[in-house]
Amino acid sequence: MAQDQMMPPSMYCRKCGYQLAGLSENRCPECGRPFDPSNPRTFLRHPKGWRVRQWLRRIAWGLLALAVASAIALAVTIAVLHSRWKAQDRAITAIRQAGGRVSIDTPERSLALPILFGCRMNRGFNPGPAQYRAGLLGRRFAYLNDRAVEVLLFNGPLVVGRNRVVVYDAWQDIPVDDAWLANLRNLPYVMSVLIASTEMTDAGLEHFRGMGSLHTLFLRCPRVTQSAVDQLQRSLPRANVKTLRQPPASAPASAPQSGGG
Ligand SMILES: [Zn+2]
Description:
Blueprint: H1 2-6, H2 50-97, E1 101-105, H3 112-117, E2 118-120, E3 124-125, E4 132-134, E5 147-153, E6 158-159, E7 165-166, E8 192-196, H4 202-205, E9 216-220, H5 226-235, E10 240-243
Parallel strand pairs: 5-8, 8-9, 9-10
Antiparallel strand pairs: 1-3, 1-5, 2-4, 6-7
The structure holds zinc ion.
Zinc ion is lined by residues 13, 15-16, 18, 28, 30-31, 33.
């Protein structure tokens, strides 16, 4: 309190904004306007335009904070998407090398990511060299929106189109074993996995535990036991985990006939 009283009062001319504190005469030396230090109505407490400048300063700081926060959020998003994409890309390569097929899609539920980053124009199963539509950040980040959503680990007829049909009866084996299936853990968006393998056992099912995105896991793997399937189903209550029956041993899986089944 005592310190406040020792400070000279801040006074500025109402007309020209000149600083009036410490003058011997109660008259503005700049414009000649008289003032009375005992009457606050005859002078300004702050320089002219002070309030406007104060608000502009606050807005500028707010915008700066917003810009910094946005830049950090964008950098974190890119880093997360990029690390997921790298892992996913390795898994896609492994699936193709094993003879499987992957359906690549772009998220449609949220439009924010495709608008910001862009998206793949050619989608579906093994769509070949990627073609991208640019987002607000240009085309260079569009690959980050690639999502492997469906994996087919079998050979067999597949009618791809508006009404895609998987011909369950004509699946042929792909030799993927339990260790290989660890690749699928790198697909954070995968919704549907279909496997026909005589090499896969119950141990292979462990890789699907904790795959929260999974809707469907269809198996035609004779060495996988029903109790292991039931156990996995209990740990993935929202997914449909199912064993498909084996095709008749005599049936030659040669000419794909989409009419059957
Ligand atoms: Zn003045």
